[in-house]
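can u pls check wat happens w/ S-adenosylmethionine
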Amino acid sequence: MTEHLDPGLYIVATPIGNLGDITLRAVDVLQRSSLIACEDTRVTGRLLKHLGVSTRMRRYDDHASEDQRARLIDLARGEPVALVSDAGTPLVSDPGYRLVREAREADIAVFTVPGACAAIAGLTLAGLPNDRFLFAGFLPHKDKARGDVLDGLADTDATLIFYETGPRLVRSLEAIARRWPERDVAVARELTKLHEECRTGSARDLASHYSANPPKGEIVLLIGPPRVLENHADPDEMLRAALSEASPSKAAAKVAKATGLDRQALYARAVELKAQ
Ligand code: SAM
């Protein structure tokens, strides 16, 4: 490992479940740091004990006073100081933003020690388009606010990633089903842990499943992007092609699946086209 650890602030990712997911560099940096700033000394204490690391800890979150932050930044000027959160990557729906911002403003070196992040772990499992994705943190608890956030993202041409909790999952899925019945959705739960699962389907089907089987544990909720017409195809052309080998009803179902357009409207159009 590194012979010498430069002074500065080290943003260190920790596991999101499976303790084997800590990196060799993270262990090294935690061991060699003068201080570990953490959300909860009990949670981080357990990890350090498991790793055999004895570095002292100090509680930190972004609500800490200016003074506390200034003291950490001062220390990082001359010594290595690590920042961890309870799990995963600090700053991702976790404390650290203000500390990093102010450390940079104070010309303190900031280093990243990357590792586990639930949002990215969920994306790798879901099988949804991943060329573009947008992480939007936790969905709001209240129905109106949740709906507003979803509506604001309606035209975003990317897979949407949210953090969610078990008790709120079904209501969120119902809100998604009302807006985007045709989109592919994934629920990635308890990642890297004993009961890891990733279930995919429409929001409606997932809402039914989780109403009957209330989910436990930690959850990442992913929503595929709006479906686009293949090669900007004209729905009429797609219907005509489908009608050459299927009934109006089957043709409408096929085109609805491919495009996300309303099946009833497509059926009415298919009947018209067949009559021409
Ligand atoms: N900083 C963390 C990261 O990098 O993923 C996220 C912290 S945020 C406070 C905690 C939320 O992340 C949980 O409520 C859950 O939505 C998600 N999460 C964390 N660990 C998870 C896991 N093992 N499986 C699924 N979701 C997880």
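The two ends are 75 Å apart (CA to CA).
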